[in-house]
Each structure stands twice: as structure tokens, then as C-alpha cells.
């Protein structure tokens, strides 16, 4: 029996936001049509996956009614601890692909397995001989990097910074030292409601000539990217955001 494929299906970047952009503004029609043809899914949250499938159905009719879609969630511990270290065995989730069904892998926003869970599923697919097909769609990290004016030839995504203020300050200085020494842009993210606290910590901790870029609400009508030296950040408006639910990507470099 021929195996099905594992499709990495990107989602819009407006998850959790008050307004949503038209789906066809964020995703190519080919990606939407490919997703509409899939009836088996692996996701972070079944409720939000169904909401996304409703948006897809409004553009390209689903191959099966929403209630007939086979939707399976990644375990909660994968959400909390991540699955990038190879400790989670995702092979049982791919049983349908071994039976010939295509499976779609979803994250809440952007590309699954990039700054989100899902790498364990892609890894398991390779181990089982299941083809892995990434579909085209928005990736917030690359959009932010491209708009930042920072080094796009040498960069690293370092995930989340510590929540403890002292540990966070130490980590900021470590990343800044690396960026200034090597020229490697350092990218990181935060839970939206902590964005203001993180931005204030960056402005207070970084050296005045370090360049800090913040990209908020990418692909939305309210999207905003600011990239300036820390000295400039300090002398202009008090750092903050009018909508703490907007997702943001932070970057530092020279």
C-alpha cells in the first residue's frame, strides 16, 4: 500500500487577535486548496483547528464535512515542553498515513515545527518513510528578520527568554554579546501579554548602539515594524503596545 503524505500546513498569524485578515491575503490559493483536500489532522488544539478549517471551507470546500474530519491533538506535555529534542514518539499519530491517507500538521499560527510544536511529527514521518510536504505560507520569524534591516545571512532563533527578571537580564546580555561579536542576529518571541515587559527589559539592558527591532501583528492591517538603536528607543515614545494581544517578534544585532 502506498503511504499518504504529511503536509505541513501553515496557518495565518492572526491567532488570538481581535481582527482576522482574509485567508486568501495570508495564504496562496494553492495552499488553501491543498488543505481543503485533507481529512486527517494533527494539531495543537482541536477547537482552533476546526475554526481554521471553517475559514478554509469558505474559500475552498472541504473534502469532508467538518464533523467528519479526523482531528488529533498533540499531547499537552508537548505544548508545555516542546518536542524539538526528540523525546516524544509521534509515530502512533501517523497511523492513518500508513493506511494511505494524507495528514495535515497544524500549529496555532504560522508554520508548524518552526517556533511551535511539530518537529517530532515530521521526524517520525521520515522514520516511517512517509513523504513530508511543506506548504507555502507565512513564517513570522523570516518576515520579521527581512523587515528588520539586521543581518539576514547569519541569524539564530533562540525561543523564549526567561521570565525571571534577573535571569532575563543575564540572557539578554549573553545574546547581545554574541550578536555584537559575531554579527549574528538574535531572534526571540514572548507570550503576547508579556511583550511590554520584555521590551522594557531590552531597552533598559541593551547597550545604546545595539540595534533592536520589534515586529508586531505581521500580515495584519495593524502590522508595525520598528528597528532602531537602543539609544533611539530610549529617547522616543515610552516602549509599549496598544494591543498586548498582538504577537511580536524581537531581534537584536549590530
From TrEMBL:
Q: Where is the Tetrapyrrole methylase domain?
A: 49-231
Give the UniProt keywords, A-Z: Cytoplasm, Methyltransferase, rRNA processing, S-adenosyl-L-methionine, Transferase
Superkingdom is Bacteria
- Stretches that traverse the bilayer: none
Give GO BP annotations, semicolon-separated: methylation; rRNA processing
Q: Which Pfam families match?
A: TP_methylase
Q: Which residues form the signal peptide?
A: none
Q: Which GO terms describe its molecular function?
A: methyltransferase activity
PANTHER family recorded: RIBOSOMAL RNA SMALL SUBUNIT METHYLTRANSFERASE I, SAM-DEPENDENT METHYLTRANSFERASE
Name of this chain's protein: Ribosomal RNA small subunit methyltransferase I
Amino acid at each position: 500500500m502506498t503511504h499518504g503524505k504529511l503536509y505541513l500546513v501553515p496557518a495565518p498569524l492572526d491567532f488570538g487577535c481581535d481582527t482576522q485578515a482574509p485567508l486568501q491575503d495570508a495564504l496562496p490559493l494553492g495552499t488553501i486548496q491543498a488543505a481543503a483536500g485533507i481529512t486527517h489532522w494533527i494539531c495543537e488544539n482541536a477547537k482552533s483547528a476546526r475554526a481554521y478549517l471553517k475559514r478554509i471551507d469558505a474559500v475552498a470546500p472541504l473534502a469532508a464535512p467538518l464533523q467528519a474530519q479526523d482531528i488529533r491533538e498533540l499531547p499537552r506535555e508537548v505544548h508545555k515542553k516542546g518536542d524539538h529534542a526528540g523525546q516524544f514518539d509521534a509515530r502512533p499519530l501517523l497511523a492513518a498515513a500508513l493506511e494511505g491517507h494524507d495528514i495535515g500538521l497544524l500549529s496555532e499560527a504560522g508554520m508548524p515545527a518552526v517556533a511551535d510544536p511539530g518537529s517530532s511529527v515530521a521526524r517520525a514521518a521520515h522514520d516511517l518513510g512517509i513523504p513530508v510536504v511543506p506548504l507555502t505560507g507565512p513564517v513570522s520569524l523570516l518576515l520579521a528578520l527581512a523587515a528588520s534591516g539586521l543581518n539576514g545571512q547569519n541569524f539564530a532563533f533562540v525561543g523564549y527568554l526567561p521570565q525571571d527578571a534577573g535571569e532575563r537580564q543575564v540572557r539578554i546580555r549573553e545574546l547581545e554579546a554574541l550578536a555584537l561579536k559575531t554579527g549574528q542576529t538574535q531572534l526571540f518571541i514572548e507570550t503576547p501579554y508579556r511583550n511590554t515587559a520584555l521590551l522594557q527589559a531590552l531597552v533598559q539592558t541593551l547597550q545604546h548602539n545595539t540595534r533592536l527591532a520589534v515586529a508586531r501583528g505581521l500580515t495584519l492591517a495593524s502590522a508595525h515594524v520598528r528597528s532602531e538603536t537602543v539609544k533611539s528607543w530610549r529617547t522616543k515614545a515610552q516602549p509599549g503596545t496598544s494591543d498586548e494581544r498582538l504577537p511580536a517578534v524581537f531581534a537584536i544585532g549590530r
